Amino acid sequence: MHAGDTLAKRNALVLAVAQALGGANPAIVVSLGGMVGQMLAENKQFATVPVSLSHLGLALGTIPAAMLMKRAGRRTGYVMGGSIGVLAGCMAAFGIASTSFLIFCLGTFIAGFYSSFVQSYRFAATDTASDGFRPRAIAWVMSGGIAAGIVGPQTVIWTQDLIDNVPFAGAFLGQAALALVAIVVVAFLRAPPVVAKSTVGGGRPLREIVSQPRFIVAVVAGLVSYALMSFMMTAAPLAMIGCGLPVGAAALGIQWHILAMFVPSFFTGRLIVRFGKERVTATGLILIALAAVVGLSGLTVWHFWTVLVLLGLGWNLGFIGATALVTDCYRPEERAKVQAANDFLVFGATATASFGSGTLLNASGWDLVNWLVFPPIMIALALLFWQNRGKIVVPA
């Protein structure tokens, strides 16, 4: 570790705690959104719309969140993001209490906006880090997702019946409370000061930056890793139930999946430092492809659980590796717009995958879901191989 990484290490720890709190936000929405939608929607076909809207809010919020932080700084931006999270939880709870499906959907959509701030924590951890520590800083923040996978479900369990005769509203008030605590945590962030435009200018045009081969490869790898994870993860529990397997087995499979997503973060950064960003990213993509191979080989509980574990491991290596690749593509004054462009593309694809996965599964079955994994994996691997051979120079 570089001698000057003391501040970066401190910030990474602060952001990891914030990740544990903010990462519980989507866990609560995903756990309860469909059930509340089933309870409130007149047309039960729209029951999962609240969950999909949270994904859409995440995609649409990335650019405004980045622009806000560019003008006001990371800490101020994250405090405002936490405030949005408080509003989202309160609005969703009010929607349940007033039996308004529309208000509840608005609450989950705003919760997606809050998630767009949370997702940028991984980039914020690199702001004060040396080149050598950046991958580890990203991995430290992502490790907060382990706690989020526990905090979110436990919040649901302990607060869903908090308000008499209004089921689940208490869980969304719990979501608001977690966002409130996150505001206190991010206040300890010591981000670099906002750089005045008059001093350095706005950097290169975005079109020039995003046309860099390295950026294209990074975005494709991150997009494929995250979108395919969402695509298969959404379909797998439904496929398990469709095969006659118990709901409890599906829920346990998702728990193993979440652990596989975040536990490797403790050593992913070291793997990147030792083996390189491209190799680690490629390994993650190969693991996702292997998950599809297992998915095509059988329909037992163990097949599905293995699919979900491999999917989580692959996402971790692929997404963290791709994120590290993105940090090579911009100068300090360019980071806000480049990070926003990356996340808009990645999470936009993820939202599309979330909307389409269940429909495709119902129409064509689990096998087709798995077969569709291979073409984007092959494209991403080919781009990584080409980029690694070219040894593209990182801009100064």
From TrEMBL:
Gene3D superfamilies: MFS general substrate transporter like domains. Keywords: Membrane, Transmembrane, Transmembrane helix. The chain crosses the membrane at residues 12-34, 46-69, 76-95, 101-125, 137-156, 168-189, 215-242, 254-273, 285-305, 311-330, 342-362, 368-386. One of its GO terms (molecular function) is transmembrane transporter activity. Residues 214-396 form the Major facilitator superfamily (MFS) profile domain. PANTHER family: MAJOR FACILITATOR SUPERFAMILY PROTEIN, MFS PERMEASE. This is MFS transporter.
